[in-house]
């Protein structure tokens, strides 16, 4: 009989599971076989940092055409929201489609990162189950994610890539189910923004941090000398031999949580970064991510996924005032985060990417924009094939080939393709990518090319 190695065993288990069960059963089977999986094969460190722009970022005022003819089409569609051509910050992609582009005038940090080769754009990205044309959309024959243009539904689809179900998991959660290191102190997924579907798995969950670090139990585990007696009583309760299975489980989880909090605090104690982050929630969160990455050897994880949410992008009104502030914060903090990773000496091992549940309408509602569909995202890091625009920039003509109606642009690059490119770099095999990204088989690009292999 021909011998097979552990990697081949896992691949055959995946394929046999896919043939006869749902994705949930497949991942459950794989978690049982986790002793055979590949975390121990990772001898290098890699991290992904997801920044979710909650509310629906108007990406068509983040990356814009500057060439005269293309700008005129843009300005006609955007009306009063059009950024003056002379105010755009020019960028110079290594590969040209014949049009000149610029970024929002508040994004000098992003302009600098792009020009230095540390950042690229992914054009016209969005929630798709399969490719969609305008004709298919208008004649109702298109297969689309449920409840397009709804915040909650599109956020859930972006994060899970699955249709609604009580068993819905996130793509980062499914990755953790597949490759989690059972010997590591920390889970693969770490959230700076609370519990989230993106990092929910079947057999794994995320560890939650605040921008200030570990959140201690109030009046019991907060380090206050006055709480010593209360802490002792609480610990005595945890250490009792409880008859109830639920009580024993709670005690175990609580003890592990308190012990892990101590380990994280110890690791962060001497982990500092000097980069000039903005003193806002996004900046404080990214500073904490940088400090955690700096302390990575304390925790022993070879793979980590960090998740940060920053809100306010639902600009139905006052967009001309609010969006420049939002994009300025994003730009400055991306630059500071890149500087922090350079300071640590780990830019090649960390890739940062942005998401948003949808773009916005090209047309103005008078003082802002309404919910759209496609939009642009950014990827940043030393492994990024920088200074490029990947994917296809859309035709911004109203009622043009990429417009559903009313300036809602149909995406031409799917989240599955985007995520598969990120996690291929992370170390997943083709078979594992098919498990994590359920719609990937409907698209032609399994690798968009924005990350070095």
UniProtKB/TrEMBL annotation:
Keyword terms: Signal
Signal peptide range: 1-19
Pfam families, alphabetized: DUF1501
Key word Transit peptide present: no
Domain of life: Bacteria
Transmembrane segments: none
InterPro entries reported in the protein's UniProt record: DUF1501
UniProt KW Signal keyword: yes
PANTHER family the UniProt entry points to: BLL7424 PROTEIN, DUF1501 DOMAIN-CONTAINING PROTEIN
Protein name per its UniProtKB record: DUF1501 domain-containing protein
Source species of the chain: Aliikangiella marina
